[in-house]
Design goal:
This protein is an alpha+beta fold. The protein is 19% helix and 39% strand.
Length: 277
């Protein structure tokens, strides 16, 4: 096979250190495969990311987003990437608000002022079948040591409320629970504790990735779980390893607000792409 003549443009972005490679495929270009995604995600031999997001044209919204994990699997939701791309597209068009089509549905995003971007991640999924769980158990009281809560936010989440989230050996704890038999599609794992009224500290293990500095969908899931347990109200401050998000479980869905960063633009070289094919 001849070496591709065209490099592949990409953007590097992050939301609170939750970092992404973003590839704008609205003009067309090289389709991605799981193997190529894993190669791009290699932090030593590729670019490196927690998730990769593709921007595609869409007839229902301003754009369609497809999310990939670092292990080459796909996810329906990635809240921080959605915020980052929303900010990019609003800057591109000058619009104060846009819609984005995802596996989670069509999501609304808006400029929240002060350099912050808000996205509505939709209503939480609370039925065991749709999260999904492997059997008819109460998602609010899972039969798992530690008494966690299950929530769907476009991907499955398992939230443990603990005395001190910073004291948990998260790499071991997250890896041990990601593949729990109750979660047939694996799960994101969060550990959280209450700092004060409507103020939570949370750390996260993301399925297909590992420990990340932040996770938007996980922040939404923890906020919903805390409200369901009566630990906090429906609008909370969420402190993560990478910074702080504001989460508001409103009537129209779970709104997540925080900062974004567009770090760099780059090109994947044709020879490297050929070698990865």
């Amino acid at each position: 096979m001849a070496i591709a003549r065209t490099p592949l443009p990409f953007m590097k972005m992050h939301g609170l250190g939750n970092d992404f490679v973003v590839i704008d495929r609205r003009p067309g270009g090289l389709p991605l495969s799981a193997a190529l995604v894993r190669a791009i995600g290699d932090r030593h031999r590729g670019i490196g990311f927690d998730q990769l997001a593709e921007i595609l044209p869409d007839g229902r919204a301003d754009a369609r987003l497809v999310f990939w994990n670092a292990d080459g699997t796909q996810s329906d939701a990635c809240g921080n990437a959605t915020r980052c791309i929303a900010r990019h597209l609003m800057d591109e068009t000058g619009a104060p608000a846009i819609t984005l089509s995802t596996g989670r549905g069509v999501l609304a995003a808006r400029d929240a002022g002060g350099g912050l971007t808000a996205v509505n991640m939709g209503a939480p999924v609370l039925d065991w079948r749709a999260i999904p769980l492997a059997g008819p158990v109460d998602p609010e009281r899972l039969p798992i040591p530690g008494d966690p809560v299950a929530t769907g936010m476009g991907n499955p989440h398992c939230t443990f409320f603990v005395d001190d989230a910073d004291a948990v050996d998260l790499p071991a704890f997250g890896a041990a629970h990601e593949h729990h038999p109750l979660f047939p599609q694996r799960t994101n794992v969060q550990v959280a504790h209450l700092v004060g009224p409507d103020h939570l500290r949370m750390r996260v293990w993301e399925r297909g990735v590992g420990v990340t500095l932040a996770s938007g969908s996980s922040s939404c899931a923890v906020a919903v779980a805390a409200a369901r347990r009566g630990l906090a109200g429906r609008a909370v401050r969420m402190d993560l390893d990478g910074g702080t998000l504001s989460i508001d479980w409103a009537e129209d869905g779970v709104w997540m607000t925080g900062p974004t960063a567009h770090v760099a633009d780059g090109m994947l070289a044709p020879a490297w792409l050929e070698a990865m094919a």
